[in-house]
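Narrative of activities, Objective 1.

The group set out to show that a structural description can be obtained from nothing but a protein's sequence at a throughput compatible with the screening campaign. Below is one input-output pair from the validation batch, recorded exactly as produced.
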Amino acid sequence: DFVADRTHDGKAFRMLCIIDEFSRESLAIRVARKLKATDVIEALCELFVSRGIPAHIRSDNGPEFVAEALRDWIATVGARTAYIEPGSPWENGYCESFNSKLRDELLEGEQFSTLYEAQVLIERWRRHYNEVRPHSSIGYRPPAPETILLPASALSYAALRPAQTLAD
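Output recorded for this entry:
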């Protein structure tokens, strides 16, 4: 989905927000003055290379998402589109919720001087959202913590004992 904002000088910029519905992880936020279907393809291509090709891509019916080039590319790589019905944002609830949090937690409280500043601060917020910020929908844990600590009960007894040396 897309979110729009402005820099301090009044110039508009857009954010392409890509999230994983299952994990709730924010996979990418592209920030630019203009974003077209080719920018969506580029962002998805990078994610497909690093994470694999998903079964479906859910989006609204915005011109960037229904562009023939994007539809053809998605079909060529083996994914499918899952467009929401026009005027039905509840069908894309995870993304709408994410967009609301982005606006409430960052955009409403920041005034970006430049596009570059917006890119840096938005990426910093995205990493915090993924790695630190607790999410009520997934048991008050972050979706992609920087480090995953297993509870002691999940470790085998051998892992809890000190290592034995040959001299023992």
